[in-house]
Amino acid sequence: MKLPHKTLEKGLFNKGYGYVCAVDEVGIGCLAGPVVVCAVGMTSTFHKKIHKKLHNLRESKLLLPKQREKFARWLIEDQQLVYTLASSSPKVIDKINIYQAARRAMRRAVQKVSSISYPVSSTKNQKIPNTKYQIQDTGIKTMVLIDGPHKISKLDIEQIPVVKGDRKIFAIACASIIAKVHRDHLMIKMAKRYPGYGLERHKGYGTKYHQSQLAALGPSAIHRRSFAPVRKML
């Protein structure tokens, strides 16, 4: 299996960029729960490190849950990598559509991470909260790498969209893992609040079991009513 590479990031640092951000989202196709976005930021210091623990890191969907948890822990413990999380709720998704909701969350995450220098503090058993941060010199030349074919609108920062970027670009793969682990944790908590749907198992995706339970119980407060399988239950 071909692993994501650091070629693009290396080229940007060689061209004088001081800060590279990468962003990815998770939960686009779910029937329940928010869409979650992670944006990571790195300098050449992080990029040049030999990350033996991260050697087999790849896009989150290609990893087992235990592997994702392990990589996410190593990433957030690294003091040279910063990250932020943003999300859009099911109500927002229903109001403005899933694409616009994901883009809104992407814009918020990138705006925040692009002003980060480094985490103020961390602990070994840190969960995956929004990182505490300090503001960096805003004069640093910054590039944002986006998973997908389109730039983020209303974002006054240079951007490079990359189709299947989470499979090709190391920095985007890092963002995909943190986003996925954070959302999985969130959906496990939601399963206790909204029992019976099996959210802890499928994390809101439209599996046969989820749809059968949806038919039996009806939509919960976190189901996306604009999505056809949910809408037909109303």
UniProtKB/TrEMBL annotation:
Molecular function in Gene Ontology: metal ion binding; RNA binding; RNA-DNA hybrid ribonuclease activity
Cofactor(s) listed: Mg(2+); Mn(2+)
Catalytic activity: Endonucleolytic cleavage to 5'-phosphomonoester
Top EC class, one word: hydrolase
Keyword set, alphabetical order: Cytoplasm, Endonuclease, Hydrolase, Manganese, Metal-binding, Nuclease
Residues reported to bind a divalent metal cation: D24, E25, D147
PROSITE patterns: RNASE_H_2 (PS51975)
Superkingdom in the source lineage: Bacteria
Any GO BP: mismatch repair
GO CC terms of this entry: cytoplasm; ribonuclease H2 complex
Intracellular or extracellular location(s): Cytoplasm
EC id: 3.1.26.4
Domain RNase H type-2 residues, every copy: 18-234
Cofactor binding note: Manganese or magnesium. Binds 1 divalent metal ion per monomer in the absence of substrate. May bind a second metal ion after substrate binding.
Role, per record: Endonuclease that specifically degrades the RNA of RNA-DNA hybrids.
Family statement: Belongs to the RNase HII family.
Protein name: Ribonuclease
